[in-house]
Design goal:
This protein is mainly α. The protein has two domains: 1-62, no CATH class; 63-105. Helices cover 52% and strands 0% of the residues. The chain contains six helices and no strands. Helix 1 crosses helix 3. The longest helix has 14 residues, at 90-103. Pfam families: HTH_ParB. Residues 35-97 form the ParB/Spo0J HTH domain. This is ParB/Spo0J HTH domain-containing protein. InterPro entries: HTH_ParB/Spo0J.
Length: 105
């Protein structure tokens, strides 16, 4: 979900929420893009989630790849990941992963 949201933001060139002016107001706007400007709220609505959920999912992309995989494989709940693991430094995330493997969870 997070990668999808970030890709949509990239496609629509949304930065920091959007709706403060973007490529749609420029004459050189690419025909590859919709004629309607999008905001993070629009993307969240399109995905059927709230804006705060969108932000939380995007936080998951700051995790080390192994933890991202664990979230994707549902070995770790996304709420645990963005409320706890996203607040850890990379080294702390790696330490957690090593402990996880040792315990064979």
């Amino acid at each position: 979900m997070a990668k999808c949201a970030v890709e949509l933001e990239r496609i629509y060139r949304i930065e920091h929420g959007g709706d403060r002016g973007n490529q749609y107001e420029k004459k050189e706007a690419s025909s590859n893009y919709s004629n309607l400007a999008k905001t993070q709220e629009d993307i969240a609505n399109d995905l059927g989630i709230s804006v705060s959920q969108l932000h939380n999912y995007k936080k998951l992309l700051t995790l080390i790849p192994e933890l991202q995989d664990m979230v994707e494989d549902k070995k770790v709940k996304s709420t645990v990941a963005y409320n706890i693991f996203c607040k850890l430094k990379i080294e702390e995330q790696q330490d957690y992963l090593i402990a996880w493997v040792r315990l064979d969870l």
